[in-house]
Structure formats: structure tokens, C-alpha cells
Amino acid sequence: MHGSGMNDGGSSRPANFIGTRARYETAAKGNGARGRQHDRPEADGEPGPHALRQQAATTAIASTYSLVAKNVGSYLVLQGTMLYIAARMTDSLLVQLRKGVLDLCVLAMLARSDGYAYDIASRLAEEIGMGEGTIYPLMRRMQADGLVKTYLEESSSGPPRKYYQLTKAGHAALVAQKAEWNSFTAAVARVLAAGGTPTKLSGAGR
């Protein structure tokens, strides 16, 4: 009877062991299948977690580059606009300065020697960039104001030329305008100098 009990115990123990082993193997296969499904790039047409992480990282990088490019583009546009405005302001300032000193320059040139309109215009264009078209109306105005007088002189290259010559009133106007110019430029230099204290310009506030 004892031997029979051992046989029963011996036969039941292998059966329980085999059953338990079978359950473990089944569970392991199930876990392995789920693990493979988790690691698979695409399952049932949907991206896996790894693919989703890559997609999110790519989207973040693209957004960053887009933002940087937008900011850089805006900065360049702003800088270009500022440079354009500065250039326009500089050109406008030069035009006004040229107009302001045109009378003085013509008087100074005629004080050294008589000249005809085309010669005066050519020299002013070379020296200060003034256009030739502005000289002819200026010479007519100076003549009407009594600052210059004219005379004709024969030319070897064509018809006689009309020369302009300063009158006494023209010489006096040159002296006065020269003094005003020197005073003005000195005052501007003091304003531009660091720590400079400008003095009141003559005629200011009148």
C-alpha cells in the first residue's frame, strides 16, 4: 500500500509540474508577442511609440527652425528698412546743403576769375555734385539782383560766350555770406563735439 501511495504521489507531482510549466510557457509566449507588437514600427496601420517620438522630435525641430527663420527674416527686413531710410535722409540732407551753399560757391568762384555759365556749372558739379540745370536760373537771379554783370567774349570753338563778373554788390555779398557760413559751421561743430556748448547763432530768434 505504501508503494502504491508513492506511485500516486509520484504520478501527481509530475502532472502538476508539467501543468505549471505549460502555464509559464504560455504566459511567456504572450508577453513576447506583446513585446514584439510594442516594438513593431507599425501595427495595424498605426505608428508605434518609437515612430511617434521621432515624429514629435522632427516636428519640434521644424517648428524651431521656422521660428528662427521668421525672426531672422524680420530682423533683416527691419535693418534693410532702416538703412533705406537713413540713405534717403542722407541724400535729402545733401540736397539741402548744396542748395544752401550754391550762392556762396558761385560768388567765391567768380571772385577768383570771371566765368561763363557752363564752366561754372561744370566746376560745381565736379566739386560738390551740383547739377548743371540749377546754375542758369541762379545766374539770371544774381544778375537781376545786381550781384553780377555780363559781357561777351569771342570763342575759338563757337559763338561768343557770355561771361559773368562780380559787381561791388557781389563782392560785398560774398564777404557777408562767407562770415555767416564760418559762424554757422563753427556753431555746428561745437554742437557735434562731445560736451560742446553751442553759442547762439547770429540772427537766431529773429
Overall geometric form? elongated
Largest sheet: 3 strands, antiparallel
Order of helices and strands: HEEHEHHEEH
How many DSSP E strands? 5
Q: Count of DSSP helices?
A: 5
Residue runs with pLDDT of under 50 for 5 or more positions = 1-12
The helix content, as a percent range, equals over 70%
Please state how the strands of the largest beta sheet are arranged side by side.
Answer: 3-5-4
Per CATH, the class of the domain at 102-192 reads Mainly Alpha
CATH fold assignment of the domain at 102-192: Arc Repressor Mutant, subunit A
Report the mean per-residue pLDDT as an integer. Answer: 74
| Alpha-beta content class | mainly alpha
Distance between the termini: 142 Å
CATH architecture title of the domain at 102-192:
Orthogonal Bundle
Could you state the CATH homologous superfamily of the domain at 102-192? Answer: Winged helix-like DNA-binding domain superfamily/Winged helix DNA-binding domain
- The Rg value, from CA coordinates, equals 49 Å
Fraction in beta strands = 5-15%
Structural topology:
Layout: H1 2-39, E1 42-43, E2 46-47, H2 49-112, E3 115-116, H3 117-128, H4 135-144, E4 148-155, E5 158-166, H5 168-192
Antiparallel strand pairs: 1-2, 3-5, 4-5
Question: How does this model look, in words?
Answer:
It is a single chain. This protein has 206 residues and is mainly alpha-helical. It has five helices and five strands. Strands 3-5-4 form a three-stranded antiparallel beta sheet. The chain has a two-stranded antiparallel ribbon with strand order 1-2. A hairpin with a 2-residue loop joins strand 1 and strand 2. The protein is elongated, with a radius of gyration of 49 Å. The N and C termini lie far apart (142 Å).
